Task: structure prediction
Amino acid sequence: MPKAELHLHIEGTLEPEMMMALANRNGVALPYADAEAIQAAYRFNSLQDFLDLYYTGMSVLHTRRDFFDLAFAYLEKAASQNVTHAEIFFDPQAHTERGISFDTVLSGLTDALDKARRDFGITARLIMCFLRHLPEEHAFDTLEHACRCKEHIFAVGLDSSEAGHPPSKFDRVFAEARRHGFVPVAHAGEEGPPSYVHEAIDLLQVRRIDHGNRALEDPVLVARIVREQIPVTVCPLSNRSLQVCPDLALHPLKHMLAAGMLVTVNSDDPSYFGGYVNENFLAVQEALALTRAEIATLARNSFVASFLPERQKAAALAAFDAFSAKW
Ligand code: ADE
Ligand code: ZN
Result:
């Protein structure tokens, strides 16, 4: 199926083989002997467990070419799975905090987006995330960088350790980002309570909720998400890996669809969680016995919930409907 991917951290696509290769290329010492040892370390009890390895892993990324290699490999893989459009998170603070310049990161990523569009016809946009475990002042510094390169960054997001870092902590920087024309989104309700989802909507004025699982604990919130058709980017294999939902047979995706939520399927950090977007579709189909109609709705929703310009969105939906009719 043609589809868009809307919840994907580019640093989470760093495969163990590339991590080893870049560690050698840049003379970075990793606490792993080889790619198998990296893979063996991927057992997580919580979001924080994963984030500790995620930040260690990305320490091998140093040069513009490294960021190009990382993003181009993802886009090639995504295109091979018939992803025709991707809205990609990146975490500039995880790089600037260790002395890599914002411009090195952004130029490598945009080089890859340009080449992938030429080579595979895949379109992509960048969503710059603020790390929520850091103070809001640091996010303001990062926003200043983004304001110099507005043509390359479409949206701002909020990620990293959720518990104890509510959206309200970033109220002012999101207001400033919106004033500059960046579209707001935020991770909310992955581990954090439903009140964080409320805050993301009310204070940050998000146009999508990333994860949103715990919104289901609050029926008033669910009714609002349905009424306002606020898209929710669900990441099944991530939810299983991070113990948000250890058994996919109990995953709420089918209920979310039945409730009328505009939900999409995404891979989050595919190299860490065992699969790209198609593997996520296959896993939920198998675990939840999704019907063909449900699968088609999930894929179609990815275009509806995308930030594609209206004309491109209409064209993508027409192409999807033509595919669907044949299928
Ligand atoms: N950064 C990368 N993946 C993340 C996730 N699933 N939640 C929060 N922050 C992240
Ligand atoms: Zn995420």
